[in-house]
Design goal:
Chain lengths: 459, 254
């Protein structure tokens, strides 16, 4: 056990906790049982942007299995596609194992460096949400250690309330030890991608709407240029795709998979390297790089799903001050809010290196799962921008007034009141959480800021 | 703790009516702050000074805890009371101080005791009590209002200067002890600040005001610095003054 400074992927709001790196069930149990009053939270690869996997003054269980000499702790049946895997295993490791056998992870976020435990706790979504839903919908069972030390099996048939409270439960219902995931059959490791340049925000929304052809593509996401003004405000590049068939891939080994990391971000980057001007230049180049006419081509899995993973530790590019990622969702008929949010950021001169828009499909049964039918916009920005707290508070109100909400795996600033407005089933989740953790052991910096646990019942 | 945009949720001001302390509160209370605790002798006066904040942030809870700054031993209980009110103390601003002018300490040496109790002894007790709490939280920031008067203690008011020198040195050493705990201390060394405490006194060169100090503190809170001079030029001025040979120092018209 070591005292360790921790932050999320955004590298803001560092706090100190006792960090225990283990995948041993007995060590996990004894850690939980000897926890002090600041409680315990699990942490995977630390890809949530804010304070979800840190616990100031408490204990953090780091459950990761990178470079495990014993190999991947998983049972995979290539006939049924059912994968039973330790929560500490990353999607990266799963893809290396399963893609060559013709199976793909059913849902992947923008990075493959997330653990299965983290993917369930955040109920992550990907470019296929409008077709396939989020990660939790593909989980057949979860093995969970409760704060009592007892190990239980959860599934949506056996004990739906506890299962769905754990999906999207931000690690606050127990330690996820293992899970069984239904994998997706693929014929090749390539994605047939259509790239489309869209000249303004109306064109973007129209192209992605459910009345269009969006549902014909399993994967769909649009990069949006937030710095473009006037008639090209909100212009974007839409990429949509499906897994390519074996015969469309002209290669002996259609399932070859080689996700190499290209470069690393330098260890030190000055604050402000990513600024309005550098991002504007990048945006222009990115927009022009997309072919003016619709283009169809084959892309590899890493290039299509995980482009940022090509730059190891890209989060350092924002410098020491760190950055925040702002992701919210509004109902389908509220594109006016998206527009107003973009205008607000643009007027304040806030540059976003990455702004992506996606139309999401229906919500699942998890009370704290983020995706719901609507538009989700994701932007990142330097944390040190003057006046950012006030600006975000205004944007938060726009989102919440429209019946929208914020993604907790990304969040690093919203108020306890905002989560209550955005997640109407929070109280219901809190009641289940209390049944599952009567001792009140699970705590994180996120749960403290958002009052996700009723503090009156704390030890 | 702080959120991702650097806003601390729970802020405590010791010396709730201090002008500099109040200016800092007005500067750092932003959307995202949940609790502000004003610790002062005169609760009504402290509350009146934040009525505008209460109007602007309806979700913000403002609390009051009474203390006697010269009762050094009571500081332990004061901190316990603050924790009872709000739980975690994310930022503690230690702004209370006592400046006696024109007291004849030769005639009444014991009159200096309150100055020492408020500025030095009590503040040390307070800072240890706050540090102990912050260590268990794994996060915390203390802001100590020191003074350039402690940088090289001079004649005229050696008592005030000596207490500031003492607490300044103490705070820096405590900050050093806390490395790795998530807790840190910002020692603020303002020059002559035009406030009610210094009303009627002759202004020193490079004088500043409470708003400027607050703006500098607010900025420094998002960095990892331990010492803040306001205005910044005083750092260089005092580097020279501090290293002057005694014979020259004593001839200066300070």
């Amino acid at each position: 056990m070591t005292s360790q400074r921790l932050s999320g992927w955004g590298r803001t709001a560092w706090t100190v906790a006792d960090l225990i790196h283990t995948t041993d069930t007995d060590v996990i149990r004894s850690t939980i049982q000897s926890a002090g009053e600041r409680g315990v939270i699990s942490r995977g690869l630390g890809r949530s942007y804010g304070a979800a996997a840190q616990n100031a003054g408490g204990t953090v269980l780091e459950l990761t299995a990178e470079n495990d000499p014993m190999g991947i702790d998983a049972d995979f049946d290539p006939l049924t596609g059912l994968l039973t895997v330790a929560s500490s295993v990353s999607i990266d490791a799963i893809l290396r194992m399963c893609v060559p056998q013709g199976w793909f992870i059913p849902v992947t976020p923008g990075t493959r460096f997330v653990t299965v435990g983290g993917a369930i706790a955040s109920d992550v979504h990907g470019k296929n949400h409008h077709v396939d839903g989020s990660f939790g919908q593909h989980v057949r069972s979860i093995t969970l250690m409760l704060s009592s030390g007892e190990i239980i099996e959860l599934s949506c048939e056996l004990n739906p309330a506890w299962f769905w409270a754990t999906v999207g439960g931000m690690g606050l219902t127990g330690v996820i030890l293992r899970a069984t995931v239904a994998m997706l059959k693929i014929e090749s490791s390539k994605v047939e991608v259509e790239t489309m340049r869209l000249e303004n925000f109306d064109a973007v929304c129209q192209a992605m709407s459910s009345e269009g052809t969006d549902d014909d593509y399993r994967y769909s996401v649009c990069w949006v240029d937030l710095l473009a003004t006037g008639s090209s405000m909100g212009r974007g590049v839409l990429t949509r795709g499906n897994h390519a068939s074996a015969k469309s891939v002209e290669s002996k080994d259609s399932l070859a998979y080689d996700p190499r990391l290209n470069v690393s971000a330098p260890a030190w980057v000055p604050n402000g390297l990513l600024n309005k001007w550098s991002i504007k230049a990048f945006n222009e180049a990115w927009y022009r790089k997309a072919p003016a006419k619709n283009h169809v081509g084959l892309e590899s899995i890493p290039a299509f799903f995980h482009p940022l993973d090509g730059v190891n530790r890209w989060n350092r590019l924002y410098g020491k001050q760190g950055f925040i990622q702002y992701q919210f969702i509004v109902p389908l008929d509220r594109t006016d809010v998206l527009r107003r949010v973009i205008e607000k950021f643009s007027a304040a001169g806030v540059a976003s290196f990455l702004a992506v828009l996606k139309r999401m499909g229906p919500q699942n049964d998890a009370p704290m799962s983020f995706p719901t039918e609507g538009w989700t916009l994701t932007l990142d920005m330097a944390a040190g921008i003057p006046g950012l707290a006030e600006l975000l508070a205004e944007v938060d109100s726009l989102v919440l007034d429209a019946g929208g909400r914020h993604y907790l795996a990304k969040d690093s600033h919203v108020s306890s009141n905002a989560v209550r407005r955005g997640y109407p089933r929070l109280e219901e989740w809190m009641a289940v959480q209390e049944q599952m953790d009567p001792l009140g052991v699970w705590r994180s910096d996120l749960s403290r800021r958002l009052n996700l646990i009723d503090h009156r019942r704390l030890i | 703790m702080k959120n991702g945009v650097g806003v601390a949720q729970n802020v405590v001001l010791f010396g709730g009516t201090s002008e500099i302390g109040q200016a800092i509160i007005h500067k750092i209370v932003k959307p995202g702050v949940s609790h502000v605790v004003l610790v002062s002798r005169n609760i009504d006066a402290a509350v009146n000074q934040v009525s505008d904040i209460a109007d602007k942030f309806p979700d913000l809870d403002i609390h009051h805890v009474r203390f006697d700054a010269d009762d050094a031993a009571s500081m332990v209980h004061v901190v316990a009371e603050v924790v009872e009110e709000i739980g975690d103390v994310d930022v503690a601003i230690i702004a209370h101080g006592l400046l006696q002018e024109g007291v004849d300490y030769y005639a009444n040496p014991a009159a200096l005791l309150p100055v020492s109790d408020v500025n030095f002894t009590g503040t040390m007790v307070l800072m240890y009590a706050v540090a102990a709490r912050m260590k268990t939280q794994g996060y915390g920031k203390m802001v100590l209002l020191s003074s350039v008067a402690g940088e090289r203690v001079r004649k005229g008011n050696p008592v005030y200067g000596a207490t500031k020198a003492g607490i300044d040195g103490f705070a820096l050493a405590l900050d050093h002890e806390l490395v790795g705990s998530g807790v840190s201390i910002l020692v603020v060394r303002p020059g002559f600040v035009t406030t009610k405490m210094t009303h009627g006194m002759d202004k020193a060169p490079f004088s500043t005001d409470a708003e400027s100090v607050a703006a500098a503190v607010s900025q420094a809170l998002s960095s990892s610095r331990s010492i803040l001079w306001v205005p910044g030029i005083l750092q260089y001025m005092f580097f020279v003054l501090k290293n002057l040979p005694l014979a020259i120092w004593r001839k200066l018209p300070l």
